[in-house]
Amino acid sequence: MKKLNLFYYKTKNNLIISFEKENIFGELITEKEASNNTNLSIYFLINTENKINRRTFIVNTVSDLFIKRDSLNLLKKDTSKDSLIPSWLLNLIKKDKIIALNKSYPSWKKVLEDKIITKNKKWNINIVGLGDVGGTLITGLRLLGNDSIDKIGIYDKNINKIKRFEYECNQICYPSLDTPTPKICEINEDNLFDCDMFVFCVSVGVPKIGNEKEDVRLVQFKGNSKIVSYYAKLARERNFNGLFCIVSDPVDLLCKVAFTESNKDSSEKLDYKGLAPEQIRGYGLGVMNARASYYALKDEKTKNYIKEGRAFGPHGEGLIIANSIKNYNKDLSDYLTDKTKTANLEIRDLGFKPYIAPALSSGTLSILATIKSQWHYSTTFLNGTFMGIRNKFIKGTTKLENYENMPEDLFEKLEKTFDYLKSY
């Protein structure tokens, strides 16, 4: 198969590759020169002319560069076009070294200039909302974030909550007092976005125990969407370049609200100059994976979930648990899905709000995995909506996990969930 004709450019910090000439970058360099500059950040320019596609992403296979419209087909590993590029470039793709950059976004050049978060730097995280989930999340980050987090800023409309968590969490220390822990700092709304990661934990309209007449998460959507809209617009005003993260329910739908509202101008028209898709992440699927593992370990027939299973979709209605990708079994998967989806109601039946596992599995542990570029569950942007999928955060963007042999009946379920999320 004939190799693609590629154009190479070098700037101060970047190696840029394109299917066509890009005069704004000056003189072309040779392929040999390009192959000798792979220590730079490497961007492959694409142009989908479609802003419901991603702005940036880690290239998994060469086929990713030819996609005109993002879809769940990205979960199916397609190596059919890998032979079209030189072997040295293919090796870089296999090492997650190449970032696709979509020129259809007005802010695409900004990506080349901004280094959002530098490697090996401890992050500063700001958290808004100090209720049950927010408070537990902060506690977990204080205990486990010493190698990844420098400071945790905390904010709430209730000033006494801020003072309480500053006081109590800064008194969570290891017996050896010189063991480093992230410092908990009081912040105000003016410096909410002076950070690498903003975490939204505000929740309103949570039903009282015994009043669960419908999906508890969807009940919260109306109230939480108004608040997340406010902060998303504020992030735009402040030219925020870090991660805008949502832990409040329903995370997938609130991520879409954050993206849409931050990308409207003063006349409410979409201009796509706000938060980019890769900046927004929702953390709700981590606890569903944890709950699935809890139930899977109770039966020998489902134990393979621990090593082979996957979770997909929202933190609630539409959730899909696959007992295994390699050895998919519909009945076992449906059983795990049902048990996982209703696990929160079991805790409510005992008279408690189910917030500890979500705050730690979806929140603390998934956030730390994000910072460390490890596999975790969070929402990712596809075709104008957000859906929970296993992924990594690498070099300021997202690498999706894809599969060589995705079972077709499982894929059909994923498409139904995707259509369900797009309907909101």
Automatic annotation (TrEMBL):
InterPro entries: NAD(P)-bd_dom_sf (IPR036291). Gene3D superfamilies: NAD(P)-binding Rossmann-like Domain (3.40.50.720). This is Lactate dehydrogenase.
